[in-house]
Specification:
By secondary structure, this protein is of the alpha+beta class. The protein has 17 helices and 45 strands. It catalyses: ATP-dependent breakage, passage and rejoining of double-stranded DNA.
Length: 869
């Protein structure tokens, strides 16, 4: 009796003594189907997340590479390419290979074509390509970039289907092909549909991710705006884009691009200039004709397809037709408006995964990091091998007669090889030739011996290489190689250098091959950005000593003459008798669409839109800043800077994200630093470090600069120093800065200003005294000195509380401890010398004192002067 195995299958003996297994059919089919499904998923239908290619596409491109079809070489018949691919790498028939080749050459299907086709490769109207015996192709520049440096051991090679040759498992991919060209594929139980994107934007996103690895997928929208289809068109709304950026799945509403034209006879026409991605133009025209015949859109009088290489479909309307109604019907009933369902699935480490945008970019960056590392290691090994040979040449040429005698006295090459391998040289003599000692070629007696490679190279030396000129060439090449070897080792020892190379190569590709985006992104009906719902109004931002912030309409302030009592700018007394008095500490001018950067005394920075600041009346206390920003317990606001929304700043008082420049920092203890504005473009909700603050120090102020300004620091005891901004090199966010002024014991920095020869420096003391002095009175010094006197301080003046740069047309707000706000004109203040006490700006009660001042600039568009610059 046969024994039943443990797995439940039976083994029977057949008449010819072979074994027959009885198996459960359902289990066998399940197992076979899973194997088949995984084969389809991994090896056929889904792209690799690193190079964005399916196996069939990769094999076609590699076959073209093997055939030498570079972008600068002549085209070759597609039949030859298909034959090479089928015979060497992809034995699935020409009916599977040729359509894949054609697809990679169609500019309406690929955002960056990988193959440069010559001949009839089909059309956007669905016309089929000519037979492969008629068409020709070669690699495009983008296709060649995918295989750049493949010969430098940058990727793994595996045996082909019959193990007669090797093929790459993935390409080095010098540009992010998966994101740029997208991918479509249907596997077993899963599918992928990745839209194409703009090359320049994608590289900007990659560079941002290298610089700021903590960026979220949603923050990448700042760089990658959304899909960029090769056929152009319009995407409605950003909700679908945000969804697939963050989750890997989303739905996009895509429309064709149209415009209206006036015809003779009072008629009008709708002209379709671009059609949605993957829409057949001929089918679209046919569909519109059917709707006209069926009286669904009876307002259309005629339709003509006048397209050449560019789309132009003219829809002529009847005289009484309403164009907008016709357009809406076209969107509703035809493919002029379609939906693109995004499902970003790709093969990552031999497993299919659903990935969001950041994950796709990160996978590509990790691949490029590995490629650069392997390429550098390959170059290092090649350089070491060549350097080893050159060392042997230098040794042989230095003892030429001795080596010639050894070779001449040898009966054959093997004997000469053995004698040279046994020859030893002192380390001192080797070093005298400029050759660094290598322990691997040192004998037990601490002597240098030639390697097998060196001996073979010496025996292969030709007579002309013994000339003096050739010796100099060998020495020069060896010196260059030593420097290269040093650089390669430095790169491999530094992650920062590797990432810098990845970044530089991406930016080079952007510079050479980047192009403007073709697809517009507009708000959907009812999908309006929140700031579009907020009126762009001029406001005053006020922050109190106890951290209460508000925005107030500009109309709440009125102008006063110098020496006036002022108006109450804020209710600073709480209802409780024991409550501490509060006072206005900072005042900032902005419009509601602008951005505010909040720099804290601990050296961190937070960002907020102005319209997000609560609006309060002038006498209202405002809202605690801690409920708006995620401040740490020890943090207070030291400075606020305005980033202008969609505006190019021009005077250094404000800036925009697009402007090249710096933020200049100053601390209480006289430390200064400047950091590029671009470092602060992506600030997390919880804030980021702006400057490292040392113990017992704090940040007091920040200014916008262009890198060419001069800075003045003013201290509490009335000292000041003027120095060039170029004395301070640009530093990263985490740097602590350098010494700006050498302070005397007990002194502190209270102000920082930019030098402007059209303006003056205004210094104000706590007892209401002020003076403005020409910058010519302050001689330029090197940073780090003790400075000069800027105001004679006494019991009458009190200590200096603030100093700012002012213009004659400016106005000032003087803020006092009791919350009074006095507005005065700068032109009413006469200029005085540097070494004086100044004039009285405001009349103060005996218990009141000046806490701060703010410069305000007249608005030329209004009859009255205002706070808004």
């Amino acid at each position: 009796m046969p024994q039943e195995p443990e797995n439940g299958n039976q083994q029977l003996d057949s008449p010819d003594n072979s074994s027959v297994h009885l198996v459960d059919v359902s289990e066998e089919m399940k197992s076979c189907f899973i194997d088949y499904a995984m084969s389809v998923i991994i090896a056929r239908a889904l792209p690799d997340v690193r190079d964005g290619l399916k196996p069939s596409q990769r094999r076609i491109l590699f076959a073209m590479h093997e055939l030498g079809l570079a972008p600068n070489r002549k085209h070759l018949k597609c039949a030859k390419i298909v034959g090479e691919t089928m015979g060497n790498f992809h034995p699935h028939g020409d009916q599977a290979i040729y359509p894949t080749l054609v697809h990679m050459a169609q500019p309406w299907a690929m955002r960056e074509v990988l193959i440069d086709g010559q001949g009839n490769f089909g059309s956007i109207e669905g016309d089929p390509p000519a037979a492969m015996r008629y068409t020709e192709a070669r690699l495009s520049a983008a296709g060649a970039l995918l295989m750049a440096d493949m010969d430098k051991d940058t990727v793994d090679f595996v045996p082909n289907y019959d193990e007669t040759r090797m093929e790459p498992s993935v390409f080095p991919a010098a540009f992010p092909n998966l994101i740029v060209n997208g991918a479509t594929g249907i596997a077993v139980g899963m599918a992928t549909n990745i839209p194409p994107h703009n090359l320049s934007e994608t590289i900007d996103g990659l560079v941002a991710l290298i610089d700021h690895p903590g960026l979220s997928s949603e923050e990448l929208l700042e760089y990658i705006k959304g899909p960029d289809f090769p056929t152009g068109g319009v995407i409605l709304g950003r909700e679908g884009i945000v969804n697939y950026f963050t989750t890997g799945r989303g739905s996009l509403k895509v429309r064709g691009e149209i415009h209206f034209e006036e015809l003779r006879g009072g008629k009008s026409a709708i002209v379709i200039d671009e059609i949605p991605y993957n829409v057949n133009r001929a089918s679209l025209v046919e569909k519109i004709g059917e709707l006209v015949n069926q009286k669904v859109i009876p307002e259309i009088a005629d339709i003509r397809d006048e397209s050449d290489e560019n789309t132009r479909v003219v829809i002529e309307l009847k005289r009484d037709a309403v164009a907008k109604v016709v357009v809406n019907n076209l969107y509703k009933h035809t493919p002029l408006q379609t939906t693109f369902a995004v499902n970003m699935v790709a093969i990552d480490r031999l497993r299919p995964k659903s990935l969001n945008l950041k994950e796709l970019l990160s996978c590509y960056l990790d691949h490029r990091h590995e490629v650069v590392t392997r390429r550098t290691r390959f170059d290092l090994n090649k350089a070491l091998e060549r350097a080893e040979v050159l060392e042997g040449f230098l040794i042989a040429l230095s003892r030429l007669q001795e080596f010639i005698e050894i070779i001449r006295q040898s009966s054959n090459r093997d004997e000469a090889r053995r004698k040279l391998l046994d020859r030893e040289f002192s380390p001192e003599w080797i070093e005298s030739l400029g050759i660094p000692l290598d322990g691997q070629r040192m004998s037990e007696g601490a002597m240098y011996r030639l390697s097998q490679r060196q001996v073979e190279a010496i025996l292969d030396l030709r007579l002309y290489q013994l000339t003096g000129l050739e010796r100099e060439k060998i020495a020069g090449e060896y010196a260059e190689l030593l420097e290269k070897i040093k650089q390669f080792r430095l790169i491999l020892a530094s992650e920062e250098k590797i990432w810098a190379i990845v970044k530089a190569e991406l930016l080079e590709i952007k510079e050479k091959y980047g192009n403007p985006r073709k697809t517009k992104i507009i708000p959907d009906e009812g999908d309006v950005a929140f700031e579009d719902l907020v009126a762009n109004q001029r406001v005053v931002i006020t922050l109190t000593h106890n951290g209460f912030i508000k925005r107030t309409s500009l109309d709440s302030y009125r102008s006063q003459r110098r020496g006036g009592r002022g108006v109450i700018g804020m209710s600073t007394q709480d209802t409780g008798v024991e409550e501490e008095k509060d006072f206005v500490e900072s005042l900032f001018n902005a419009s509601t669409h602008d951005f505010l950067l909040f720099f804290t005394t601990d050296g961190r920075v937070y960002i907020q839109r102005v319209y997000e600041i609560p609006e309060k009346e002038r006498a209202s206390k405002g809202k605690n800043i801690a409920s708006i920003l995620e401040l740490k317990p020890t943090e207070e606001i030291a400075s606020m800077l305005r980033i202008v929304a969609n505006t190019q700043a021009s005077d250094g008082r404000e800036s925009s994200w697009d402007k090249e420049g710096y933020i200049f920092f100053c601390t209480l203890k006289g430390k200064v630093k400047k950091t590029p504005i671009s470092e602060f473009r992506n600030i997390r909700k919880g804030g980021i470090t702006a400057i490292s603050i040392e113990e017992n120090d704090r940040l007091i102020d920040c200014l916008f600069t262009d890198g060419q300004k001069e800075i003045v620091l003013i201290t509490k005891e009335g000292k000041s120093i003027r120095f060039s901004e170029s004395d301070v090199r640009p530093m990263g966010r985490n740097a602590a800065g350098v010494i700006g002024i050498d302070l005397q014991p007990g002194d502190e920095v209270v102000g920082m200003s930019l030098v402007d020869h059209r303006a003056t420096l205004l210094v104000v003391s706590e007892k209401g005294m002020g003076k403005r002095t020409s910058f010519e009175e302050y001689r330029k010094q090197k940073r780090g000195g003790q400075g000069v006197i800027t105001m004679k301080t006494s019991d009458k003046t009190g200590k200096v509380v603030k100093a700012i740069t002012v213009f004659d047309e400016d106005e000032l707000l003087v803020l006092t401890l009791k919350g009074n706000v006095i507005r005065i004109h700068v032109k009413d203040l006469r200029k005085t010398g540097r070494n004086t006490q100044g004039v009285r700006l405001v009349q103060l009660d005996s218990e009141d004192k000046v806490t701060s001042i703010a410069r305000i600039i007249p608005d030329k568009e209004d009859n009255e002067e205002s706070l808004f610059p």
